Amino acid sequence: MLKGLMKRGPRKVPRSDANDPVPSRPTASSVTVNHASRSAPSSYPPSTTSPAPSASPSPPVQFEQLPLFRDVPAAERPSLFLRKLRICSIILDFSDSLRSLREKESKRQTLTELVDFVQSGSCGRLPDQVQEELVRMVSANIFRCLPPAAHENTGTVDLSADPEEEEPYLDPAWPHLQLVYELLLRYVVSPDTDTKVAKRYVDHSFVLRLLDLFDSEDPREREYLKTILHRIYGKFMVHRPFIRKAINNIFYRFIFETERHNGIGELLEILGSIINGFALPMKEEHKLFLVRALIPLHKPKSVGIYHQQLSYCITQFVEKDYKLADAVIRGLLKYWPVTNCQKEVLFITELEEVLEATQPAEFQKCMVPLFKQIARCLNSSHFQVAERALFLWNNDHIVSLIAQNRAVIFPIIFEALEKNIQSHWNQAVHGLTANVRKMFLDMDGELFEECQKQHMEKQAKAKELEVQRELAWRNLEAVIAAKDDNMVLVN
């Protein structure tokens, strides 16, 4: 028996990870959705894709010189791939541009070789162990604390600051980060990547941490993240509901808490493509997403940064299901800006796109509050708002909707048009108003005359009330003057 024990020798250490303990895999129920940006991801559950616990850059190390893939037999390439991945897991300090120059260049060359190797397809289907190490290496490089934004450095939140005017922070480590993102992208889109295996490593925790990086100030990083997340959504069908829910939570926090996030536009671009693929009849989940997340995104002051993508998503919903037009238009009216004229111009532009996809039955449900708001825009002292509202009559579909419901819409709009003709200071607005007024006259002369008659009667009544008010004030002043003359002063 003693001889048998001696023959066995010491227990072998697994090749996959000789030094690191194997963390437990979280279940779907244990994943906590937490989108605290610019903070260490300590609240995430342990995952097989998590990097080493050390957050600080590694001290200078000597990179092992490894042969190129083309210089080794095909059978040895998986093990060489694994060794190169472990070298690339070492994090270098880019805060000092002169530090570890040789190591940085060596890592860059190794990453480039890994990207080319995966992209060429010569590697075939990667072994499970290599896939796990690849995702671990990616996690070690990209999952990091984002630097504080400019408004966070002061310790106070300046609500008057314009996010569009802030200079974006460009990560000095981008030469390496770009190659890591490129490697991840090539791994995800590769036809040799089996989702049944890859979903063990590209799991919910990995997706959540990827979403947190959308708050990066570096636009180059957000562009890569957008492409990668879109590809993950398309390939990993099991993750789709989870990704939609996680994006929802980012929107909720942005709308109702922080009103600051750098990646809203990129997330909306992804959603625009997702919405385009929704099947009909549309699920109730998707309708709630429109009402609870997309429409309230019109509320933040910084809506101008991502409005183009938001407008596209909203229009996609209406084109998919025309019955949603009423909810969308009423949502726009709910969040209509009062003092921000540039935001009003954006809203009118989006309104025109929505109305183009609106059917007559849905239009009739919301036309009264809608044209009351349009009438207020027509009388805006800001010429761009009034001009953009008048341009609605250049759209043939909107004009046809108005013509079908002219008995209701004319009386609402007529007074605003007359007021512009009489007193608006801008000549361009004055000319456009005259064109719209003539269009009404040509469309239904009898109704036009009736509206004109009602307007003149209303003006006459207003003048009469004004005269009565002035007379009442004069009578009151006379009574007070008479009392002053008869007043006896007592010493």
Automatic annotation (TrEMBL):
This is Serine/threonine protein phosphatase 2A regulatory subunit. GO terms for biological process: signal transduction. One of its GO terms (cellular component) is cytoplasm. Keywords: Cytoplasm. It comes from Rhynchospora pubera. Residues 1-13 have a biased composition (Basic residues). InterPro entries: ARM-like, ARM-type_fold, PP2A_B56. Residues 26-35 have a biased composition (Polar residues). It is found in: Cytoplasm. GO terms for molecular function: protein phosphatase regulator activity. Its main location: cytoplasm. Signal peptide: none annotated. The keyword rRNA-binding does not apply. Residues 36-53 have a biased composition (Low complexity). It comes from the Eukaryota.
